[in-house]
Amino acid sequence: MAMNGIGAMLSLGLPTATGGVEQPGRAPENPADAAKTRAEAAAARNKATLDEVREKGLYAWAKEQKFEALKAKIEKEMKAAKGISDASLAAMTPEERAATLTSLEAEISKRIQEVMQDALSGEAQKAAKEGRSAQPMIIDIAV
C-alpha cells in the first residue's frame, strides 16, 4: 500500500495544514477545548474554596488564609536570609534536612508570635491613647 505525502504526515503525527499536531488515538486539542478545560478547572477550584468557606465559616477561613500567607511570607524571607533553596534542601541528607526544617519551623513560629504580639501591643497602645480600656480584639495579621 502506497502512502501519499498527506497520509504519511497524518500517520506520523506531524503538523498538518489545519494547524495542530494530530496524534493517533487522541483528538486534536483546539483553543476552544483548552479554554473549556481551564474554565472547568477554575470552576472546580472555586467550588472547593466555597465548600471550605461554608464548612469553616467566613471569618475562620479568612483568618486561616491570612495566617497561611503570613507564614509563607516569613518562610520565604527566612529561607532567603539563610540561603536555603529547595535544591539545597534536596541535596541534604535526610538528617540534615530534618534538622534544618525543624529549626526553620521554630524560627517561623517565633516570628509569627512576635508579629501577633506586636499587633496586640499596638492595639493596646492605641486604645490607651484614646482613653479607653483595652478590649478583646480581633487581630488582623495583614501580609
Q: Specify Rg, calculated over alpha carbons.
A: 27 Å
Distance between the termini: 68 Å
Sequence of secondary-structure elements: HHHHH
Query: How many E-type strands?
Result: 0
The low-confidence parts are 7-11
- DSSP strand (E) fraction? under 5%
**How many helical stretches?**
5
- Gross morphology: flat
Q: Largest sheet at a glance?
A: none
Helix content: over 70%
Fold blueprint:
Layout: H1 5-12, H2 31-56, H3 58-82, H4 86-91, H5 94-129
Helix pairs in contact: 2-3, 3-5
Describe the structure.
By secondary structure, the protein is mostly helical. It has helices at 5-12, 31-56, 58-82, 86-91, 94-129. α3 packs across α5. It is flat. It starts with a helix and ends in a 14-residue tail after the last helix.
Record keyword descriptors for this entry.
single chain; 143 residues; mainly alpha
Quick structural overview:
This protein is 71% helix and 0% strand. By secondary structure, it is mainly α.
